[in-house]
Write a structure and sequence with these properties.
151 residues, alpha/beta, Glutaredoxin, 5-stranded mixed beta sheet, two-stranded antiparallel ribbon, globular
Length: 151
């Protein structure tokens, strides 16, 4: 199976890399290591322990919502981001990173205001958007950024 025919998908539960045929991404799939579903239709919680696996190793773009519990607009956008995950998976992985708990990662991406969404592919920042957005705007922005990445 060639690289074009498959994608590396990082498990949202154990952070193991799984090779999945591109044609079967929409069918979901299970992790070869832990047996859990590779796609859950909801954002995963990103931490220092799993961030690099998702940001660097996977073939799927990673859309990260940098947020904090004290941030009103962050709390307001949380349901919209969760709704966007249902639409955007399996073409990209969505994750939430608490900037208070993971200050080093927030610093690595120079997060100055929250909520901020950063689209990452293979460790490289592709696009960034600050401010709360409704679900459809998140989907349109993320899909547009991925399309621009393909050019």
């Amino acid at each position: 199976m060639s690289q074009a025919e498959s994608r590396i998908v990082v498990c949202p539960h154990c952070a193991s890399s799984n090779r999945v045929p591109t044609a079967k991404l929409g069918a979901g799939g299970k992790c070869g290591r832990c047996g859990a579903a590779l796609f859950t239709g909801s954002p995963l919680t990103l931490t220092g322990a799993n961030f690099d696996a998702h940001a660097l190793k996977g073939d799927l773009p990673l859309l990260v919502d940098f947020w904090a519990s004290w941030c009103g607009p962050c709390r307001q956008m949380a349901p919209a981001f969760a709704a966007a995950a249902q639409t955007l998976e399996p073409t990209m992985r969505l994750g939430k990173l608490d900037t208070e708990a993971e200050q080093a990662i927030a610093g690595r991406y120079a997060i100055r205001s929250i909520p901020t969404m950063v689209l990452i592919h293979k460790g490289r920042e592709i696009a960034r958007q600050s401010g709360a957005m409704p679900p459809q705007a998140i989907v349109q922005w993320a899909q547009g950024a991925v399309m621009g990445m393909a050019r």
